[in-house]
TrEMBL record:
The keyword Flavoprotein applies. This is Vanillate O-demethylase. Residues 228-316 form the 2Fe-2S ferredoxin-type domain. CDD domains: fer2, PDR_like. Its cofactor is FMN; FAD. PROSITE patterns: 2FE2S_FER_1, 2FE2S_FER_2, FAD_FR. Keywords: 2Fe-2S, Flavoprotein, FMN, Iron, Iron-sulfur, Metal-binding, Oxidoreductase. Residues 1-102 form the FAD-binding FR-type domain.
């Protein structure tokens, strides 16, 4: 996916560990609108690429905004972004959306924890302005750590349920209560720490069908060691490629001249998703929904493999 140069035009310290970076085109032209829930790739000063949800107004066109949490165990990505100054440059991708607002839903339940509020913020702002039925449940350890909480309280207080300082053992009851008696057509969206999202998805599964539960995950699933993999064949455009145990489908197809886009190489961004025409994918990504996995019709070729000996793929 092509990258463009942008300039940091403003920086806002939201919490002690979260900064919002406002980004504009270097030539002064409009950044353009984006669909609520979308994210971009950001290549930081250390050349590390990470995915960040856009949290500016989706209908705004002058700037993009991303909120970056400084992680204690960062490999340099978030730390470097926190050291940026106004006027510095970055490279970013075009927005893409794997979360999105379900167009057939009659009600939307947004659930966020910590920095997981970022995709939910753009979705909540869009739904509030367009009078779409939603409620937002925001879990945070403290008021001080709750990025954008004052904004949400000001703009959509009647839709917001701020669960500040709630113990982990008590979170399930609140989420269950929010979903109890959920009407047909209700969809749930969740973003936050891995354990939190797993818990919410399990609870949602007791009230909603799998296709109505949407997860935004920017943390890679731990992959099996290469020694446990087996080799197999992949067919693309009538040409057959051999995928050895120690290489990914994406690597092999790109080396063979395939027009396969990649970004994270960890199965979290969705750039490399391809259509499965035949074969049984072994999904190892953190981006596809449960219904997408069960359909067997798409796969993330940067990490996923096959349970059989052959796959037939096409471009997505």
């Amino acid at each position: 996916m092509p990258l463009v140069d942008v300039i940091v035009t403003d920086i806002v310290q939201e919490t002690p560990t979260v900064k919002t970076l406002y980004l504009s085109n270097a030539d002064g032209t409009s950044m353009g609108a984006y669909s609520p829930g979308a994210h971009i790739d950001v290549v930081g000063p250390t050349s590390i690429t990470r995915q960040y949800s856009l949290c500016s107004r989706p209908d705004g066109t002058e700037t993009y905004a991303v909120a970056v949490k400084r992680e204690d165990n960062s490999r340099g990505g978030s730390v470097a972004l926190h050291e940026l100054k106004v006027g510095d440059t970055l490279r970013i991708s075009e927005p893409r959306n794997l979360l999105g607002i379900a167009v057939d839903a009659t009600k939307h339940v947004l659930v966020a924890a910590g920095i997981g509020i970022t995709p939910m913020l753009s979705m909540a702002r869009h739904m509030h302005v367009n009078d779409i039925d939603f409620e937002l449940h925001y879990f945070s350890r403290s008021e001080q750590e709750a990025a954008f909480l004052p904004l949400l309280r000001d703009r959509c207080p009647e839709r917001l349920h701020a669960h500040v300082g709630v113990a982990r053992d008590d979170q399930a009851a609140l989420i269950g209560a929010a979903l109890a008696g959920a009407a047909t057509g209700t969809h749930l969206y969740v973003c936050g720490p891995d354990g939190f999202m797993i818990k919410v998805a399990e609870l949602a599964g007791q009230h909603l069908p799998p296709e109505s539960v949407h997860i935004e995950n920017f943390h890679a699933t731990e992959q099996p060691v290469a020694g446990s993999n087996t080799a197999f064949e992949v067919e693309l455009d009538g040409e057959t490629f051999h995928v050895p145990a120690d290489r990914s489908i994406a690597q092999v197809l790109i080396d063979g001249g395939g027009d396969v886009d990649t970004s994270c190489q960890e199965g979290i961004c969705g750039t490399c998703i391809m259509t499965v025409l035949a074969g049984d994918p072994e999904h190892r990504d953190s981006v596809l929904s449960t219904s997408e996995r069960e359909s067997g019709e798409v796969m993330a070729v940067c990490v996923s493999r096959t349970r059989g000996e052959r796959l037939v793929l096409d471009y997505y």
